[in-house]
Amino acid sequence: MKYVDEFRDPVRAGVLLKEIEALTAQIMAGRDRPVVIMEVCGGHTHSIFRYGIEKMLPPEIEFAHGPGCPVCVLPMGRVDDCVELAMKPEVIFTTFGDAMRVPGSRLSLLGAKAEGADVRMVYSPLDALALARANPDREVVFFGLGFETTMPSTALTILQAQAEGIGNFSLFCNHITIIPTIKAILDSPDMGIDGFLGPGHVSMVIGTDPYDFIARDYHRPLVVAGFEPLDVLHSVWMVLRQMAEGRAEIENQYDRIVPRHGNEASLAAVTEVFELREFFEWRGLGSIDHSGVQIREAYAAWDAERKFAVASPSIPDPKACQCGEVLKGAIKPWQCKLFGRSCTPETPMGALMVSSEGACAAYYQYGGIDAVPEPAQ
Amino acid sequence: MCLGIPGQIVEITDAGRKLGVANVSGVRRPVNLACVIGEGSVEDLIGTWVLIHVGFAMSKIDEDQAAETLRILTELGEAQQELAAMRDGDRALGDAQW
Questions:
Q1: Class of domain B3-93
Q2: Cβ contacts of residue B89 below 8 Å, gap of 6+?
Q3: ipTM
Q4: Which are the contacts of A373, defined by CB distance < 8 A and separation ≥ 6?
């Protein structure tokens, strides 16, 4: 427990760990397989690894690292779309820095930039809108990605572009939505998840009501969790307490940030600008119904997909790449043949190695030297 | 991107467009305030601590929470990434204004 010292309140962390041990013993009395808790959000994955939380818990408690890293689940075909857009001479392609190194079938955005494309890293979609205002003779495309946490920012940016009549700005919309994705995981035949840590900042936007079906229809507890280590421990304790008491409810550990009904202004903007897609392709998980959003017809003028007739080819992941199995929890990152060999944070092959919130990058960074295999002979 | 970063709103620059400036770890950054105004007026937000995601203030927080969140984000390396992303953004913006 060498990391407990780093907790904001080590005494409280110690008490929680003791109670978690007792609850685990109580739960395990009636079962013969480990308790699997999925942390949906990549921020939690990062925190769990950084603070060594899994190692502090009884061995019967396992984390399944969920799909909540938007950079990681971006399919290759969408990266190729970005590269194609960026290569157009009239286009200034703007993106969050996180997305620069995600591999496409031929190039990443970083590679496209090296080949002369005008790719610029911005911090905010409003930076991109400012660039459009300042460069009226160019087309500025913003690469919008993320779950509900970042959806309000791009929705409000489109509403601002409309209000100011800025016609040379458009959004390449790759936003994804968490609820259908959790549902798809719950519906998969080999689903072995006993409870969930719900994403904190997605829930800050959508509230906790949308999760009700998980308790009602699937009888699994979900606790919306903050990402500080003490939040994660507290939330694990809340999930286990529900299991020990035979309850399945939606609880909110992160109520200092997450209101039950979400953020009204954010939801209004998102609903105004976006609608659900029929389906969206995920790296490693395949196509999931209604798991992405697209821009409504009324805002078509700011939709890069319509403006540039984006093709969105469906391109399979590299054959040796096992991001999909890792995402579904079927294998651990180090069990992938590429892990630590041809796939490292410096030269990622699969998306899970790209972002610090990806399970593979987290294992690589914090898993300890034992987790990194010897180079293949 | 997903974890955000705390900042304190220090100036309202355009009440109509709900824009202000936040102090984020000593760095001044324009922020959109549309999601945290609520019932009040935009000027009431000066001095308020907020959690900022990609240039949008998304939730009010208290000062102690802000300090603790920043400490954890720094330990995770996320605060440094976020500040680097802001510098990238500033570089991309050049003379362009929000």
A1: mainly beta
A2: A121, A122, A123, A124, A127, B55
A3: 0.97
A4: A334, A339, A340, A341
Distance, in Å, from the CA atom of A221 to the CA atom of A240, rounded to the nearest integer, reads 9
CA gap A91, A159 in Å, rounded: 21
C-alpha A191/C-alpha A195 separation (Å) is 11
The reply to whether A346 falls in a domain is: no
Q: Which residues contact A10 (CB under 8 A, 6 or more apart)?
A: A4
A32 and A165 both lie in a single domain: no
Residues A149 and A153: their CA atoms lie apart, in Å, by: 8
Q: What residues make up the domain containing A188?
A: 2-68+178-250
Q: B89: closest CA among A125, A126, A99, A123?
A: A123
Q: Quick check: helix, strand or coil at residue A237? A: helix
Domains of chain B, residue spans: 3-93
Q: A214 and A274 in one domain?
A: no
Q: What chain A residue is nearest to B57 in terms of C-alpha separation?
A: A153
DSSP string, A101-152: T---SS--HHHHHHTT--EEE-SSHHHHHHHHHH-TTSEEEEEEEESTTTHH
> How far is A104 from A340, CA to CA, in rounded Å?
20
Residues of A in contact with B25 (CB under 8 A): none
Chain B partners of A229 at a C-beta cutoff of 8 Å?
A: 72
Tally of structural domains, chain A: 2
A68 contacts in chain B (CB < 8 Å)? 2
SS3 for A345? coil
List chain A pLDDT tens, one digit each, 377 residues.
445 777 778 899 999 999 999 999 999 998 999 999 999 998 999 899 989 999 999 999 999 888 888 888 888 899 999 999 999 999 999 999 989 988 888 999 999 999 999 999 999 999 999 999 999 999 999 999 999 999 999 999 999 999 999 999 999 999 999 999 899 889 887 778 999 999 999 999 999 999 999 999 999 999 999 999 999 999 999 999 999 999 999 999 999 999 999 999 999 999 999 999 999 998 877 899 999 999 999 999 999 999 998 877 788 877 888 887 787 767 888 899 999 999 998 888 887 888 877 889 888 988 754 444 444 43
Alpha-carbon distance of A364 to A360, in angstroms, equals 6
Rounded to a whole number, what is the distance in Å from the CA of A359 to chain B's nearest CA? Answer: 14
Q: Which CATH number do you get for residue A32?
A: 3.40.50.11750
CA-nearest of A322, A367, A328 to A342 is A322
Residue B2 and residue A42: Cβ atoms within 8 Å?
yes
